Amino acid sequence: MGKAQKYVLLGDATYPLQDWILKPYQEDENLTQRQLQFNYRLRRAHSVIENAFLRLKARWQILLKCDDCSLELLPTLVLACCILHNVCEAHDNPFNEEWLEGTEPTELPKPCQPAPAAMEDGRAEQVRELMCQYFESCGEG
């Protein structure tokens, strides 16, 4: 859209809107078609992320029992699994669907209450609006 953007994380409605956290528009009857499309695209992206984490945990099942290792080792363990997983995926190493049998999608911890409006960053609405325009310009998909 002609404006360089930095990376953002995807959040749900419980997170505050920040210029580095994209969250959906609040679902109500006043949403425009463009805002509904934005929310749909965000949900689709979120499902891709969940699937990627599910495949990562299925391939490297040590991640299912990380409570067995020390907290100091944990970041290195997760990073190593991510790197090895990406190498396997890049080289078309077959993914065995049976690995998924012992792996259930898990709800990631998130805030219980929606973030107060005071935590929201006014500039973040511009980022969300730019993304909304971008999704609209891409058409369906």
UniProtKB/TrEMBL annotation:
Pfam families associated with the record: DDE_Tnp_4
UniProt GO MF annotations: hydrolase activity; metal ion binding; nuclease activity
Highest taxon above the source species: Eukaryota
Main location: nucleus
Cofactor: a divalent metal cation
UniProt keyword Nucleus present: yes
Coiled-coil residue spans: none
Family: Belongs to the HARBI1 family.
Protein name, UniProt field: ALP1 protein
Gene source species: Chauna torquata (Southern screamer)
Gene (name only): Alp1
